[in-house]
Design a protein that fits this description.
This protein has a domain at about 10-135 and about 250-320: 2-Layer Sandwich (BirA Bifunctional Protein, domain 2), CATH 3.30.930.10. It has helices spanning about 10-30, 70-80, 115-130, 145-150, 160-170, 180-195, 250-265, 275-285, 295-305, and strands at about 35, 40, 55-60, 60-65, 85-90, 105-110, 140, 205-210, 225-235, 235-245, 290-295. The two termini are about 20 Å apart. By secondary structure, the chain is of the alpha+beta class. The protein is globular, with a radius of gyration of 20 Å.
Length: about 325
Amino acid sequence: MSKHWQPTASIEAIKEKARILQSIRAFFAQRNVLEVETPIISSAAITDPQLESFSTQYNQQEFYLHTSPEFHMKRLLAAGSGDIYQLAKVFRDDELGRNHNPEFTLLEWYRSGFNHHQLMDEVEDLLRGLMNPAINSYQRISYQQAFINQLEIDPFEADVKALKQCAAKFKVESPQGMEEDRDMWLDWLMVEKIAPSFSKEGFTFLYDYPASQACLARLDKNDSRKANRFELFYGELELANGFYELTDADEQAKRFKNDNKIRQQRQQKLMPIDDCLLDALNSGLPDCSGVAIGIDRILMLIIGAKHIKDVISFGDEFSENSI
């Protein structure tokens, strides 16, 4: 008899995840942040060229599984919900590996009146309550300073030629297909040189990304080259992505269209823009910041798991053995 029916996560890991979810709910209850649920399936989808959505059919119309509950949660915020959070199953048609599974658990929350630095404070507060007390190293560095420190280059000033020269100088192998795409070069240098420089035994907040990588974040009021966005890492492992949220519907629409332009250039599928989100922004999104954290990766750190399937009850659904 095959043992394929058995869970990939141990019962101890499943219990630990239940404890974490209970602690998260207690954390937000203490701060009067409301738990919400939103649809998993939508007729619109994320346009971000870095992400790909699963699609399905209903009545001969194409729908998409969400990569994040962000768009629907912002519609709730615009409707007057106040501070909210959600523990959601999300889906990304992405690589399968040690730190990646196409279906995973995401914690996302929004805080009215917070900028991205205040939200980083709250992320740190949450993690200090969840993690082993021995893991208490939290560092913050700007995107610009990280590049200057490690690569002696200003990412806000460097063009593609300068980034290529930087890669050659620091002996970073250049993969095929990037050509004149500046953001792909920045991302590659981030993966190869910046992230590996972060503390191996602690958390690093990297903040104020280039404006070209703003996604749904507003631009810095003092320097429009910078987006008020942050990411959280443990060592090289990305755990969270946060924004001081853009509230300008016209600017957001421009970004969605530009995303699809980039997707077309990269020969990716064009994605339907979420007009309901744009209408919600037009009606008035409160001044707020939001963040999404991968709970499965947090659990991996807590229990010392080496593979994400070890913290997902049935983490082999997408493996070759299950097909």
